[in-house]
Design goal:
Structural class: alpha+beta
Number of strands: 7
Radius of gyration: 16 Å
Oligomer: single chain
CATH topology: Nuclear Transport Factor 2, Chain: A
Largest sheet: 7 strands, mixed
Number of helices: 4
CATH class: Alpha Beta
Helix content: 25-40%
Length: about 140
Protein backbone atom coordinates (compact mmCIF):
# COMPACT_ATOMS: atom_id res chain seq x y z
CA UNK A 1 0.00 0.00 0.00
CA UNK A 2 1.32 3.42 -0.91
CA UNK A 3 1.54 5.90 1.88
CA UNK A 4 0.76 9.49 1.02
CA UNK A 5 3.85 11.66 0.82
CA UNK A 6 3.71 14.77 2.88
CA UNK A 7 5.06 17.82 1.17
CA UNK A 8 7.22 20.16 3.15
CA UNK A 9 6.15 23.79 3.27
CA UNK A 10 8.06 26.14 0.97
CA UNK A 11 11.31 27.56 2.29
CA UNK A 12 11.38 30.85 4.18
CA UNK A 13 13.27 32.36 1.25
CA UNK A 14 10.64 31.23 -1.27
CA UNK A 15 7.75 32.58 0.81
CA UNK A 16 9.49 35.91 1.47
CA UNK A 17 10.49 36.33 -2.17
CA UNK A 18 6.97 35.61 -3.43
CA UNK A 19 5.52 38.05 -0.89
CA UNK A 20 7.89 40.89 -1.79
CA UNK A 21 7.57 40.26 -5.53
CA UNK A 22 3.79 40.49 -5.22
CA UNK A 23 4.05 43.82 -3.37
CA UNK A 24 6.54 45.16 -5.92
CA UNK A 25 4.08 44.21 -8.70
CA UNK A 26 1.24 45.97 -6.87
CA UNK A 27 -0.52 42.64 -6.23
CA UNK A 28 -1.58 43.29 -2.63
CA UNK A 29 -4.10 40.43 -2.65
CA UNK A 30 -1.40 38.03 -3.84
CA UNK A 31 1.00 39.22 -1.15
CA UNK A 32 -1.64 38.71 1.54
CA UNK A 33 -1.92 35.00 0.63
CA UNK A 34 1.62 34.58 1.99
CA UNK A 35 0.58 35.90 5.42
CA UNK A 36 -0.55 33.78 8.33
CA UNK A 37 -4.08 34.53 9.58
CA UNK A 38 -2.35 35.55 12.85
CA UNK A 39 0.34 37.74 11.21
CA UNK A 40 1.58 40.72 13.16
CA UNK A 41 2.86 43.65 11.06
CA UNK A 42 5.04 46.06 13.06
CA UNK A 43 5.05 49.53 11.46
CA UNK A 44 7.61 51.86 13.05
CA UNK A 45 7.40 55.55 13.76
CA UNK A 46 4.88 58.07 14.95
CA UNK A 47 2.56 58.36 11.97
CA UNK A 48 -0.94 57.29 10.99
CA UNK A 49 0.28 53.77 10.14
CA UNK A 50 2.56 53.17 13.14
CA UNK A 51 1.85 50.31 15.49
CA UNK A 52 1.07 46.62 15.27
CA UNK A 53 -1.48 45.50 12.70
CA UNK A 54 -2.88 41.99 13.14
CA UNK A 55 -4.23 39.75 10.39
CA UNK A 56 -3.97 39.93 6.60
CA UNK A 57 -7.11 42.09 6.33
CA UNK A 58 -5.60 44.75 8.58
CA UNK A 59 -2.28 44.64 6.70
CA UNK A 60 -4.06 44.91 3.35
CA UNK A 61 -5.99 47.92 4.65
CA UNK A 62 -2.75 49.67 5.67
CA UNK A 63 -1.07 49.01 2.33
CA UNK A 64 -4.23 50.06 0.49
CA UNK A 65 -4.43 53.30 2.44
CA UNK A 66 -0.75 54.01 1.68
CA UNK A 67 -1.58 53.71 -2.02
CA UNK A 68 -4.69 55.84 -1.64
CA UNK A 69 -3.05 58.64 0.36
CA UNK A 70 -0.15 58.79 -2.11
CA UNK A 71 -2.51 59.00 -5.08
CA UNK A 72 -1.35 55.59 -6.29
CA UNK A 73 2.33 56.62 -6.37
CA UNK A 74 3.51 54.48 -3.44
CA UNK A 75 5.86 51.76 -4.61
CA UNK A 76 8.24 49.22 -3.15
CA UNK A 77 11.42 47.91 -4.72
CA UNK A 78 13.65 45.03 -3.62
CA UNK A 79 17.17 46.50 -3.71
CA UNK A 80 19.28 43.47 -2.88
CA UNK A 81 19.24 39.77 -2.30
CA UNK A 82 17.11 38.62 0.66
CA UNK A 83 19.20 37.29 3.56
CA UNK A 84 18.08 34.19 5.44
CA UNK A 85 18.77 33.10 9.01
CA UNK A 86 16.54 30.10 9.76
CA UNK A 87 12.93 31.34 9.78
CA UNK A 88 14.01 34.99 9.44
CA UNK A 89 14.39 36.71 6.08
CA UNK A 90 15.75 40.27 5.82
CA UNK A 91 14.76 41.99 2.59
CA UNK A 92 16.54 45.23 1.66
CA UNK A 93 13.96 47.54 0.10
CA UNK A 94 13.40 51.05 -1.13
CA UNK A 95 10.00 52.65 -0.83
CA UNK A 96 8.84 55.83 -2.45
CA UNK A 97 5.79 57.91 -3.16
CA UNK A 98 4.39 61.41 -3.52
CA UNK A 99 1.84 63.16 -1.37
CA UNK A 100 0.67 66.78 -1.33
CA UNK A 101 3.75 67.90 -3.26
CA UNK A 102 6.04 66.00 -0.89
CA UNK A 103 8.29 63.13 -2.01
CA UNK A 104 9.39 60.10 -0.04
CA UNK A 105 12.23 57.93 -1.32
CA UNK A 106 14.11 56.03 1.38
CA UNK A 107 15.75 52.69 2.05
CA UNK A 108 14.56 50.16 4.55
CA UNK A 109 14.63 46.55 5.62
CA UNK A 110 11.60 44.29 5.90
CA UNK A 111 12.34 41.50 8.39
CA UNK A 112 9.96 38.59 7.88
CA UNK A 113 9.46 35.57 10.13
CA UNK A 114 8.25 32.52 8.22
CA UNK A 115 6.76 29.46 9.93
CA UNK A 116 5.06 26.51 8.25
CA UNK A 117 5.12 28.24 4.87
CA UNK A 118 3.48 31.50 5.99
CA UNK A 119 4.75 34.86 7.24
CA UNK A 120 3.87 35.26 10.91
CA UNK A 121 5.73 38.50 11.69
CA UNK A 122 6.70 41.53 9.62
CA UNK A 123 9.05 44.08 11.19
CA UNK A 124 9.67 47.15 9.04
CA UNK A 125 12.75 49.34 9.37
CA UNK A 126 13.27 52.75 7.76
CA UNK A 127 16.56 54.60 7.26
CA UNK A 128 14.82 57.91 8.03
CA UNK A 129 11.90 57.50 10.39
CA UNK A 130 11.41 61.24 10.82
CA UNK A 131 11.02 61.72 7.04
CA UNK A 132 8.58 58.84 6.88
CA UNK A 133 6.56 60.27 9.77
CA UNK A 134 6.41 63.70 8.09
CA UNK A 135 5.35 62.15 4.79
CA UNK A 136 2.50 60.01 6.16
CA UNK A 137 1.42 62.45 8.85
CA UNK A 138 -0.81 61.66 11.79
CA UNK A 139 -4.16 61.88 9.98
Amino acid sequence: MDTPKSSAPPSALTVATEYVQALVAGDVAGAMTRLSPQVQWHQPGQNRFSGVHRGPESVAAVVGEMHQISGGTFRLELTGKPMVNGPLVACPVRFAGERKGDRLDIAGVDLLTVQDGLITQVHLFSEDGAAEDRFWGRD
